Amino acid sequence: MTLSVTPCTDPSRWNGFVNQFNGHPQQLWGWGKTKAEHGWSAERLLLSDGGQVVGTAQLLLRRLPFPFRALAYIPRGPQGEPGRETQLLDAVAGYARDKHHAVALTTEPDWEASSDAAGLLPAAGFRQSTNTILIPRTLILDLRLSEEDLLAAMSKKHRQYIRKSGREALEYRAVRREEIPQCLAVYKQTAERAGFGIHEDGYYLDIFDNLGADSPVYAAFKGDDVVAFLWLSASGFTAFELYGGMSEEGERLRANYALKWLAIREMKERGITRYDFNGLLNDGVSKFKMGWAQHEDLLAGTWDKPLSPLYPLYNSALPLAKTALRKVRGAVAGVRERLGR
């Protein structure tokens, strides 16, 4: 049975459905609004069977050069009634093809790689892609566990550093909007040391404004100065780490240990049951993340459904375009650095 697709224009109603179906924070209205203010467009789709909403999908659209028209992307969605996952995707794919002439629908669902839903993706016309946006290998804590059980699952070193950094002369608390520039200054220091690119300040301020209470930021303060921060997004079901960083003083004091433990406890206090560390790589940050539990999680990954005969050409051209874009962004960042902007 084909589901009907209806755009939703009410932010409160939309977020209500996302939380009703245990959706991811990247499916919340404010996340789509932020992306729409920075190069994408966003549509929130209600997927119904006989007039009853059985699922939803926040669809992000990016215009592409001729002849590809557009890319349609669902970050960590869709969400809906269990057992309908591929039916929901099929409805969104038809909408993206017919209304936006998209070359493909890309989805990175919030499903375990071993789930039945993920196993059905090839038969539904999806192909696994290496053009990953959100890393599927991650660590997800079950916040239904007691604090004692969460601590017991950590490495001994993590428990020690939580206690040690908690005894330092630091204040750990939520960040106010006027303190966000301090966090971003620390983030720039972190990015420069680690060699990764970041957005302009306005992007992060838009996230803070558009998501509101669904994007809490916590920081460690030494006096009036931020020495470490951790930025989350949160639906009613899942907390998801977005950004974080430390100054050299924060590193010395190992402020990130007590800070992350504060964030985990705050999310648990909200009634959230999943805390996603947002990706594991083979680097120092990931080594730090892996000390918080004795397991890893593997999500379904990145999947494309071709919607145009031009998909093979698009799929081969995308990695080259990404490489060129990274070089341009690096050059622009270098110019801005030299100009002191």
Shape from CA axes?
A: globular
Strand content: 15-25%
Topology as a string of helices (H) and strands (E): EHHEEEEHEHEEEHHEHHEEEHHEHEEH
Q: What's the CATH architecture name of the largest domain?
A: 3-Layer(aba) Sandwich
Helical percent range?
40-55%
Secondary structure layout:
Layout: E1 4-7, H1 11-20, H2 29-36, E2 41-49, E3 52-63, E4 70-75, E5 79-80, H3 85-100, E6 102-108, H4 116-119, E7 127-128, E8 137-138, E9 140-142, H5 147-153, H6 156-167, E10 171-174, H7 180-194, H8 201-211, E11 217-222, E12 225-234, E13 238-246, H9 248-253, H10 255-270, E14 274-276, H11 284-290, E15 297-298, E16 303-306, H12 311-339
Parallel strand pairs: 4-6, 13-14
Antiparallel strand pairs: 1-2, 2-3, 3-4, 3-5, 6-16, 7-16, 8-15, 9-14, 10-11, 11-12, 12-13
Q: How would you sum up this structure, described in words?
A:
This protein is an alpha+beta fold and 341 residues long. It has two domains: 4-134 and 299-339, Aminopeptidase (3-Layer(aba) Sandwich); 140-292, Gcn5-related N-acetyltransferase (GNAT) (Aminopeptidase, 3-Layer(aba) Sandwich). The protein is 41% helix and 25% strand. It has helices at residues 11-20, 29-36, 85-100, 116-119, 147-153, 156-167, 180-194, 201-211, 248-253, 255-270, 284-290, 311-339, and strands at residues 4-7, 41-49, 52-63, 70-75, 79-80, 102-108, 127-128, 137-138, 140-142, 171-174, 217-222, 225-234, 238-246, 274-276, 297-298, 303-306. Strands 1, 2, 3, 4, 5, 6, 7 and 16 form an eight-stranded mixed beta sheet that branches.
